[in-house]
Design goal:
InterPro entries: ExbD. Belongs to the ExbD/TolR family. The accessory proteins ExbB and ExbD seem to form a complex with TonB. Its main location: membrane. By secondary structure, this protein is of the alpha/beta class. 34% of the residues lie in helices and 13% in strands. β4, α3 (112-125) and β5 (130-132) form a beta-alpha-beta unit. The protein is elongated, with a radius of gyration of 33 Å.
C-alpha cells in the first residue's frame, strides 16, 4: 500500500494522483457478494419434469388442411373458401367416424384474429382435434 507523506515544506501542493484503493475494495466486496448469492438464486424447487419427444406431424389422407394467408383468406385443401363455407364444410366432416384432424397453416404475418376465426369455426362445428403447422427453426446458422 502506498501512502503519500508530505515533502520538505511542500505541504501546500495539490496531490494529482487518484487513490484507487477504495474503488478496488468496493469492487472486490461486490464480487464476493455476487459469487455467494448467485448459486442461491438459481436453485428452485426440485422437480422431476416429464421428458417429451416431439414427432413430426404426418398428414394423413383423412386430415383437413386449412390455410390462412396474411390477408385473412381461408383455403380448404388449397381451395379458396369464405367463412360460411368453411363452417359448413367443417360441420359435414365433423360427423365422420373417425373424425378427421384439422391442420391449420397460418402465414407468419397473419393477424391472430383470422386464425381465431378458424379455431372458432372448428369449435362450432364440433371438431375434436385441431393442430397448427409450423416450420422447424433453421439449424446451424
Amino acid at each position: 500500500m502506498a501512502m503519500s507523506v508530505g515533502q520538505d515544506g511542500d505541504e501546500d501542493e495539490v496531490m494529482s494522483n487518484i487513490n484507487t484503493t477504495p474503488l478496488v475494495d468496493v469492487m472486490l466486496v461486490l464480487l464476493i457478494i455476487f459469487l455467494i448469492t448467485i448459486p442461491v438464486v438459481t436453485h428452485t424447487v426440485p422437480l422431476q419434469l416429464p421428458k417429451e419427444t416431439i414427432q413430426p406431424l404426418q398428414t394423413t389422407p383423412k386430415s383437413i388442411e386449412i390455410a390462412v394467408n396474411k390477408d385473412g383468406d381461408f383455403f380448404w385443401n388449397e381451395t379458396h373458401v369464405d367463412a360460411q363455407t368453411l363452417l359448413t364444410k367443417l360441420k359435414t366432416v365433423s360427423v365422420q367416424t373417425p373424425q378427421p384432424e384439422v391442420h391449420v397453416r397460418g402465414d407468419q404475418f397473419t393477424r391472430y384474429e383470422f386464425i381465431g376465426r378458424v379455431i372458432t369455426a372448428c369449435e362450432r362445428a364440433g371438431i375434436a382435434k385441431v393442430s397448427f403447422i409450423t416450420e422447424p427453426p433453421a439449424r446451424g446458422g
